[in-house]
Amino acid sequence: MSNGVFNIPTPTNEPGNTYAPGTKERETLKAELKRQSETVVDIPVIINGENIKTDSVKQVVMPHDHQHVLANFSLAGEKELRDAVEAAMAAKESWANMPWQHRASIFLKAADLISGPYRDVINSATMLGQSKTAYQTEIDAAQELADFLRFGVDYANQIYQMQPDSMKNIWNRLEYRPLDGFVLAISPFNFTAIGGNLPSAPAIMGNVVVWKPASTSVLSNYYFMRILEEAGLPKGVINFVPSRGSQVSEVVLTDPRMSGFHFTGSTSTFQTIWKNVGENIMNYKSYPRLVGETGGKDFVFAHETAQADKVVAALVRGAFEYQGQKCSAASRAYIPASMWEEVKAGVLEETAKLKVGDVRDFRNFMGAVIDKPAFDSITSYIDYAADSEEAEIIAGGTYDDSVGYFVQPTVIVTTNPNFKTMTEEIFGPVLTIYVYENDQLEDTLTAVDTASMYALTGAIFAQDREAIMHLERRLSGAAGNFYINDKPTGAVINQQPFGGSRGSGTNDKAGSVFNMIRWTSPRIIKENFAPTTEIAYPFMDEE
Ligand SMILES: NC(=O)c1ccc[n+]([C@@H]2O[C@H](COP(=O)([O-])OP(=O)(O)OC[C@H]3O[C@@H](n4cnc5c(N)ncnc54)[C@H](O)[C@@H]3O)[C@@H](O)[C@H]2O)c1
Ligand SMILES: N[C@@H](CCC=O)C(=O)O
């Protein structure tokens, strides 16, 4: 029996550990890092709760020590991908019908497993497999992942409580059904939390999911899948299929029962997928919901009334934390000429202090970039700037992939507000600065707004309230997450719902009720307690 209107435990943001020297948390994390560094994990494809090994095996390596293998994982091929769709569809009815409080409990328990006994495990996997420092990993794999689950349950509950009015003798009920078929989730490498949220958000809303993680984050994503299983997720609800993106597009994306697509990754991948869906539109049984958060070219704009030291901190942390591999990373900046010498001195001083290396050494501020293609792409931008007459590299500019994919934090100054590195997403530790004349404020704001195809995050720095209001208004379309006197990174679930528009995505705001509402197909049910027998209208008796 399950009678009762149950209250969801009120979520709060998961507090973070500091990992300061001498703390217990540092000791246990270091022990787990050692254990995982000495282990090679075998990662299967997981379909309908079955562990499946395939003939196609790939490796997970440490980006900061690329000869060190952390795991071997099976790659799902066409057969496994088709099986995953069938498994999801077979699990659909019982999952959709599971009483809400039980569905919710599974994800709440998973959040507690992450923030409790598995914290070191998922943090270590993220540090080693994605080359994230302990500080950045804690924000991602422990705090944000647990927050996504706990707040996701709360958002679903808020949606379920949204009910229509009912008049005399009528009861109107809104039933929040899952989508008609299954949801395909494809996740990026850079946030373990995003990897976990993309399949979980639709599943919390009662959907079944085929989840393709990025090949470079398979290790942490696999541990998350195991945590869901331990929390009691029924077989087939989420099917874990590391695979080639192009094959998932061919086999799963085009399946007529694909009714939702939950994506985070690059703009070009999302556009390719959107095009595939468009070309296939006649074959689907419903109109697939497409939710995608994609690339960014995120800015920091300093007004002449800004405080230079605050701008420096925002630039250095915003651009170089996690090697600039955040979609929100500060990658272009606009500094007034009157402040430039002070900002330049600060940026050079602070950047020179940043240590780059193995993330197991907690003194390092940065690890390696994710893999060889990323290394080659990022360094090609640095080489381009080095060869250009419109640019000068004032810090960093060097790189070395002999042991790990290391790129030094690099600062470019350009005389062209539309220079290549001011307009294209680089996704690495490269910041480009344009110094504007103080009397060129309006033209420079136009450049901020129009230089790139993206509109994800942006930060302004100013002390003067009139200036703040002006910049906020002038840049209203330039960022979905807009920061005043703060860096453009580090959004927190339930505090700064995340997402951008233009080329940056559908702006469905990850970590909010807006995202969760995309995963339901509501049905209105009207019940009449006193059905009428009348047919004629009352005024028909007389002319
Ligand atoms: N806006 C956001 O919230 C947000 C958050 C994180 C990352 N990002 C963006 O993600 C990008 C970095 O992540 P990435 O390198 O993993 O992105 P990516 O687009 O290369 O890959 C993302 C996922 O898509 C898969 N994929 C690639 N091609 C595919 C295809 N043709 N069909 C189906 N799947 C395909 C990949 O295997 C991976 O799982 C950056 O552009 C960054 O800005 C955006
Ligand atoms: N939500 C994260 C960015 C996610 C993209 O990589 C932030 O706000 O920094």
TrEMBL record:
Q: What is its EC number?
A: 1.2.1.88
Please tell me one Gene Ontology term that the record gives under cellular component.
Answer: cytoplasmic side of plasma membrane
Task: Fetch the Pfam families from UniProt.
Answer: Aldedh
Enumerate the Gene Ontology biological process terms. Answer: L-proline catabolic process to L-glutamate
Q: Which residues form the Aldehyde dehydrogenase domain?
A: 58-512
Q: In which pathway does it act?
A: Amino-acid degradation; L-proline degradation into L-glutamate; L-glutamate from L-proline: step 2/2
Kindly state which keywords UniProt assigns to this record, in alphabetical order: NAD, Oxidoreductase, Proline metabolism
Q: What class of enzyme is it?
A: oxidoreductase
Its Gene Ontology molecular function terms? Answer: L-glutamate gamma-semialdehyde dehydrogenase activity; proline dehydrogenase activity
Q: Which reaction does it catalyse?
A: L-glutamate 5-semialdehyde + NAD(+) + H2O = L-glutamate + NADH + 2 H(+)
InterPro entries given in the database record: Ald_DH/histidinol_DH, Ald_DH_C, Ald_DH_CS_CYS, Ald_DH_N, Aldehyde_DH_dom, P5CDH/ALDH4A1, Proline_metab_enzyme
Q: What segments bear the compositional bias annotation Polar residues?
A: 1-16
The answer on whether this UniProt entry bears the keyword Lipid metabolism reads no
Q: Does the keyword NAD apply?
A: yes
Annotated region described as Disordered, given as residue ranges:
1-22
SUPFAM superfamilies xref list: ALDH-like (SSF53720)
- Cite the CDD domains for this sequence: ALDH_F4-17_P5CDH (cd07123)
Family from the record? Belongs to the aldehyde dehydrogenase family.
Xref: PANTHER family: DELTA-1-PYRROLINE-5-CARBOXYLATE DEHYDROGENASE 1, ISOFORM A-RELATED, DELTA-1-PYRROLINE-5-CARBOXYLATE DEHYDROGENASE 2, ISOFORM A-RELATED
- Stated name of the protein: L-glutamate gamma-semialdehyde dehydrogenase
- Species this chain originates from: Rossellomorea aquimaris
